[in-house]
Amino acid sequence: MFSIKKILILCGLLTSTQIFALPQDSRRAGGIAVIPLSQNISEVKYKDQPILITQPNTQRYAIFGIPLSTPVGSLELQTNAQPIQIEVKPYKYAEQRLNVKNQDYVNPQQEQLDRYAIEAKEQNDIYTSFSPAQFSDFPNFIRPTAGKFSNSFGRKRFFNGEERAPHSGLDIPAPVGQKVVAPASGVVVGVGDYFFNGQTVLVDHGQGLISMFCHLSKINVVKGQKLTQGEVLGLVGKTGRVTGPHLHWGMSLNNARVDPQLFLNQ
């Protein structure tokens, strides 16, 4: 399947030296829709949540994150002009069965549930935020750490035989202490040691685009700190609910957890 960038090159509207960074268009639950906008559209929303808009050249695009819970079929985006229809295609994610030694991470005690509720609200407040973009052109994301991708995003998970929510990030197995860097410039908007996520850093790239890095062994940044692409933000670890050392890399776009691999230049 051709990407929007390849189509523009083939049509003579863009040369190879003018290729800009846009995420991959993958219209599935947990995917991304890259939508060219007509000149009369200046604002796009989904369920009252504003959608990221970028203009890397003369064409403007809405970059819409499709929530993992979205059923197959049509959904509608609101604009200041005509609505935009998105067709969500079927996509089968794998299943994953994990054995966790600490039973509290499978069936938490009430005290732990209370702690999780506070932490979840703190993170959700970040995911629903919408700040000015930290970029002029949409950033060309890089990998946050070295290692083979596990293709774990979207997997239906079973912990000790009990079904839980689909996996909303990408796991990268790596040794404890390996560097984790910012995949794009942004501002640190969250730092914490969470019950499930362990030591965690959240980075705001602007316009509702948030990256998350979990299970760290060390955090090298503080809340409010500005990061440039490639700057070290922490070290790989195995804190929180894990079965081994790895980095959990999550991406949230308009409060939808989407596949981080779609941001990488293929």
UniProtKB/TrEMBL annotation:
The name on file for this protein is M23 family peptidase
Could you tell me the keywords of this UniProt record? Signal
Which residues belong to any copy of the Peptidase family M23 N-terminal domain?
Answer: 30-81
SUPFAM superfamilies, per the entry: Duplicated hybrid motif
InterPro entries with a match to the protein in the record = Cell_wall_metabolism_enzyme, Dup_hybrid_motif, M23ase_b-sheet_dom, Peptidase_M23_N
Keyword flag Transferase: no
- Which residues constitute the signal peptide according to the record? 1-21
**Single GO term (MF):** metalloendopeptidase activity
Native organism: Acinetobacter sichuanensis
**Span of domain M23ase beta-sheet core:** 166-260
**Could you confirm whether the keyword Transport appears in this record?**
no
